[in-house]
Prior knowledge:
Layout: H1 2-11, H2 22-53, E1 56-62, E2 64-65, E3 81-89, E4 92-95, E5 101-106, E6 113-114, E7 119-123, H3 126-169, H4 174-213, E8 216-218, E9 223-228, E10 235-236, E11 247-250, E12 255-262, E13 274-279, E14 286-299, E15 304-311, E16 323-328, H5 331-335, E17 346-349, E18 354-356, E19 359-366, E20 369-381, E21 384-389, E22 396-400, E23 411-413
Parallel strand pairs: 1-23
Antiparallel strand pairs: 1-22, 2-17, 3-12, 3-16, 4-11, 5-7, 5-10, 6-9, 7-8, 9-11, 12-15, 13-14, 13-16, 14-15, 17-21, 18-19, 19-20, 20-21
Amino acid sequence: MDQKAALLSQLRIDRSETPEDPEASRRRRWMMGIAALIVLLIVVASGWYVSASSRVSVHVAVAQAIAGGGAGSAPAGGSLLDASGYVVALREATVSGKAIYKVTEVLIQEGQAVKQGEVIARLDDTNSRAALEQSRAQVKQLEAALAAARTAADDARPVYLRNQKQLQEGLISQEQFDDSKSVYDAAEAAAHVAEGNLQVAQAAVAVNQRFEDDTIIRAPFTGVVTVKNAQPGEIISPQFSGGGGIAKIVDMDSLEVDVDVSESFINRVHSKQPATITLNAYPDHQYPAEVIAVIPTADRAKATVKVRVAFNEKDARIVPEMGARVSFLEEAQKAAPGPVAVTPGVLIPAEAVQANGETGTVYLISGETVERRAVRLGANSAGTQTVLAGLQAGARLAVGDFAKLRDGVKIRIVN
């Protein structure tokens, strides 16, 4: 048993602690620190991802001050309603020939003022002049034929009357009287036919004279030449007058502004309503104006109604097709002398507001969150919404999914 115990003692593992190597201990602590740092980074990244994924992605829109409030005038932003449109001419014409002609002379240039009836071009009249001369010659020929027929009728008339008297006295037979009557009737009929032929020939002269007159092109009304399309030697045709003609003339006294007003706000506009017009080219000047008419039909595609606005004052700066902005005013603003005290407004993209009739909701960006704000709306035109009250110029607005936006929600701004 002693030997067996000795052998087992030799095979037993010695579990007594041995001193640890200092270098190994440092390595172990360093590895544990790295592992803890990795775990911490994973936890932070996961928290950031969860937080970022819960934020609402938005774009930024900035409220812009409305231009056009020059000194001594009412700012456009204080109007009852604003709308954009274009200057149009109520009376304009593309002048061309009535038939196919070759142009021989053009007497106008673009920008030239012309008066009604003034000659602006001449066309080739070779054919029309020849036809006119021919018809005049026919008139002369038929005038001679009519004179001969009338002479024959005048000669036959005394014989007829004498035979009629002699027949009553029984001096000639009925047959002799009938012969004289036939001659007289034939002469009178020939005279009537010759007279009718002459009238036809005279009408032909009038027609050919009109053709000749049509080769002289005159201004249909007083205006300004805005487009010159023809040059000497070109062929013009009335079928293609819409594509060019000789020239385009515009009556500058008939200029007005046509604007499209959202049907949601058309109840603010009426005939004879005072307004101001600001041209995009001259934003510092306002023209007094007045509503001509509200066209009683709506554009289904754009949900707008056309409104015609007249200039009460005009100058040479106003030209057709200019962009313009119309501010519709209240009657009190028209009567008030001097500048009108009004609240300035701002312009924002239409997508930055939840509109509900005359009011709406926007979300102001405040740091990483948004603040819900109620505003009063003006006109909506060409993707731009006028805000009459509730916003200041420079305000930063969130543009995104309004279903996810609410007061105090965190946002993530994207480009």
